[in-house]
Design a protein that fits this description.
- By secondary structure, this protein is mainly α.
- It has two domains: 2-97, Orthogonal Bundle (Rna Polymerase Sigma Factor, Chain: A), CATH 1.10.1740.10; 106-195, Arc Repressor Mutant, subunit A, CATH 1.10.10.
- The protein is 69% helix and 0% strand.
- The protein is built from eight helices and no strands.
- The chain has helices at residues 2-25, 31-47, 57-97, 106-113, 117-127, 133-140, 144-164, 169-173.
- α1 (2-25) crosses α3 (57-97), α2 (31-47) packs across α3 (57-97) and α6 (133-140) packs across α7 (144-164).
- Mean pLDDT is 85; it is low at 176-196.
Amino acid sequence: MGHERSARFEELYEAHLGHVTGYVRRRTGDADDAADVIAETFLVAWRRLDDVPPGDEARFYLYGVARRTLANLHRGQRRRRDLTTRIGQQLAADLASAPAPEPDRPEIGAAFRALPDGDRELLGLASWEGLDNGQIATVLGVSRNAVRVRLHRARRRFTRELERRGISREVARAPAARSDRLAPDTRVPSRKAESA
């Protein structure tokens, strides 16, 4: 019985793979989606092999399965797209309703924003996120030693940028009167991560 079932499925697969592939490819532009739909179509055929009609009628049965599978795929894509849009709109509304914190020292934020992206990311991970060198290395996919060297260089460049703007390092490192007023782009990265 099991051998007969396998032989029937193999025959079905060989006879109709090309038809099903053409049907699906004409209805979806993405090769990965097409492969998923084709695989699912033949999985359903395997599970319900007793329901698959004989002869050429099997092709129409498989088209029906592929059609429903494509419909499920498109429905899922629409749901994900709608959810993404809804979450984006809600997040935008939430952020718009919450006023951005006023920085106590906007010139420090300007100096920070003048740094290259890589420096800002390193300094932000160390200061704002409170990560140590090992954790930063994991986030960036580099070694701890690379983080230590890059962080040291980023801090030097930040210090030079502050000095170029006439801000002494002591002023930049002084705690703000109200830390909740500091915008993330105006906090000065700590040296905590360098010791890790």
